[in-house]
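quick q for whoever's on today - can somebody do inverse folding on this one?? i tried earlier but teh output was garbage lol. tokens:
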């Protein structure tokens, strides 16, 4: 993709170009962690992105510059966080985004940042408390506006998106336990294929990257480790990410070891052989103090032999959570629609509650009749 500069533009600035992505978020919740990381990654990959760089909590219409940015954006990433609904600014911005989706066919991708999608959809929890505050002494005009906010939240929460779950917090805390652990710290995540190890690793990486001088996410190590050339390219990627330099070209895999000195966070995804770990992270002395290394694999024994500091097993979803995930993909609601209950139960049991399989099958079967389900399932 051709490299283009990404700008941070406040709503009052004029906008001359269309944006590929518009980020909608609650600044105090995610500006300096998740949203900041997304923005930098879009920038690094040449994706022209709009991010409102000012905290404007004013009881007025969306500023004309921001409205124009919304109208000229091709895709919206809406990050629902705990305090999102406290902000009238965010809720009014969401109204415009949903209108663009409905009238202009724009793509909207919701991200549920440590909030339950059902709380967003039904205004429960922190979202319920926020709306209770909005409704205090509300006149008829404001009540009408509040109802529009509720409708927009429900519509957005029914879209396919990403759920960054609170249960991952214990792993994040372990990775960020810098005050208690000054040494290099390694954490292993293991489980069967398709269970969501890579997704969990990405969420963790996004959550912690701002605590470190640099970071690297090496995805799919197992499929990229075949030859010495492949190994050298992986190490070059690691060094380029960590040192934030593009001019890294190694003559051998041994050459880069002494170049890694800073405190950093790194993910080695889908490792299946001990040699892969020895190649990159065999000696803790290679890394600066307080570095954090995350390894995902299907092989628990590999992590034990490598002597990681903590192990986490990713288990299949419980039946109720599996059905909830499948229903969201297949029916855009939290339970199967009438007459589809038995078929849905069969699908969930057939794929053994694996999250990836539930998402793929649910999306594939979405909108089909029962007869169409039967034909595709038979095939």
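ok took a stab at it. sequence:
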């Amino acid at each position: 993709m051709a490299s283009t500069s990404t700008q941070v533009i406040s709503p009052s600035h004029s906008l001359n170009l269309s944006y590929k992505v518009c980020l909608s978020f609650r600044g105090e919740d995610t500006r300096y962690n998740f949203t900041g990381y997304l923005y930098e990654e879009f920038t690094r990959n040449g994706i022209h992105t709009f991010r409102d760089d000012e905290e404007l909590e004013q009881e007025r219409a969306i500023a004309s510059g921001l409205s124009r940015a919304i109208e000229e954006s091709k895709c919206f990433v809406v990050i629902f966080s705990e305090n999102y609904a406290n902000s009238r600014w965010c809720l009014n911005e969401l109204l415009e985004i949903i209108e663009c989706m409905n009238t202009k066919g724009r793509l909207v991708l919701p991200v549920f940042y440590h909030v339950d999608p059902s709380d967003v959809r039904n205004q429960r929890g922190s979202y319920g408390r926020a709306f209770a505050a909005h409704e205090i002494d509300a006149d008829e005009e404001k009540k009408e506006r509040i109802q529009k906010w509720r409708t927009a939240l429900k519509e957005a929460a029914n879209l396919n998106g990403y759920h960054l779950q609170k249960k991952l917090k214990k792993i994040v805390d372990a990775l960020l336990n810098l005050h208690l652990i000054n040494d290099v710290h390694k954490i292993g995540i293991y489980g069967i294929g398709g269970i969501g190890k890579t997704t969990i690793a990405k969420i963790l990486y996004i959550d912690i990257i701002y605590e470190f001088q640099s970071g690297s996410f090496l995805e799919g190590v197992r499929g990229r480790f075949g030859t010495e050339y492949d190994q050298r390219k992986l190490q070059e990627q690691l060094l380029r990410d960590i040192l934030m330099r593009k001019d890294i070209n190694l003559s051998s895999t041994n050459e880069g070891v002494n170049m890694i000195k800073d405190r950093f966070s790194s993910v080695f995804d889908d490792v299946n052989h001990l040699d892969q770990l020895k190649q990159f992270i065999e000696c803790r002395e290679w890394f600066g103090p307080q570095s954090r290394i995350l390894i995902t694999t299907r092989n628990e024994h590999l992590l034990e032999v490598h002597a990681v500091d903590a192990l986490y097993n990713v288990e299949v979803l419980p039946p109720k959570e599996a059905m909830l995930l499948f229903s969201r993909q297949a029916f855009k609601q939290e339970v199967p629609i009438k007459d589809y209950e038995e078929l849905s139960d069969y699908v969930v049991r057939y794929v053994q509650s694996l999250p990836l399989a539930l998402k793929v099958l649910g999306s594939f079967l979405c909108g089909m009749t029962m007869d169409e389900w039967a034909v595709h399932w038979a095939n």
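fwiw Residues 232 and 253 are 5 Å apart (CA to CA). also The longest strand covers residues 73-80. so keep that in mind when u check it
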